[in-house]
Amino acid sequence: MTRTNNRPLVRAAAKADAGPLIAVLAEAFHHGPLADWLIPDPDERRTVYYRYFRDALHHGLQHGQVHTTSDQTAVAIWYPRPEPTPTDHHQRVEALERIAGVYAPKFVLMEEMFDAVHPDTPHHYLAYLAVDPTRHNQGIGAALLTDHHRHLDHLGLPAYLEASNLHNRRLYLRHGYTAGPTITLPTHGPTIWRMWRGTPTTNGDRTPFPHTTRRNP
């Protein structure tokens, strides 16, 4: 567990944290261009998002590394990716149909487009970083990032993520990420910024965004 200056205590999340952290995820991602594209109706979005992020949180607890704060006001879900990770496409489609119902096709399309250009270089993948909207601009998200970045620098590993809006893109740029080729979702969908935090080099820079071979779903 790590405390940085006056920032909150960062610790590993457990199953007992699931309820509050699912709520943080669903609320943090409820607004924005990606949310509007996935589910235009905000009331239906709230219901589907709770199911979607409940699945994401439990998957992260089982297969990844989930970090939170002492007051459960933020959550980060990381996945170590030492090599390309195949996805059981049919199983995932069935899961998204149960979770999202009539909105499943857009969720399937989004995840397929993200997977198709995911870097093959060994890295840690930040699938989600969420802060309670009432606690924005207090350095909480930065504390979660800094804690895991310190671990990655010790391991000599880069980090990768997708930023769904310009505010988040600026946050990650401030934390050492560079922007790679973007993803534009179809049917008037939003632009997604692919972000890479390389490993330190001897001249003080970081390794650049890696070349990515597009994979078919």
From TrEMBL:
Looking at the record's lineage, which domain of life comes first?
Bacteria
Q: Which UniProt keywords apply?
A: Transferase
Q: Which PROSITE patterns match?
A: GNAT
- Pfam (any one): Acetyltransf_1
Q: Which SUPFAM superfamilies match?
A: Acyl-CoA N-acyltransferases (Nat) (SSF55729)
Q: Which residues form the N-acetyltransferase domain?
A: 64-200
Q: Where is this region: Disordered?
A: 198-217
Looking up InterPro entries in the UniProt record yields: Acyl_CoA_acyltransferase (IPR016181), GNAT_dom (IPR000182), Trichothecene_AcTrans (IPR052523)
Q: Which PANTHER family match?
A: GNAT FAMILY ACETYLTRANSFERASE, N-ACETYLTRANSFERASE DOMAIN-CONTAINING PROTEIN
What is the designated name of this protein? N-acetyltransferase
Q: Please give the organism.
A: Micromonospora craniellae
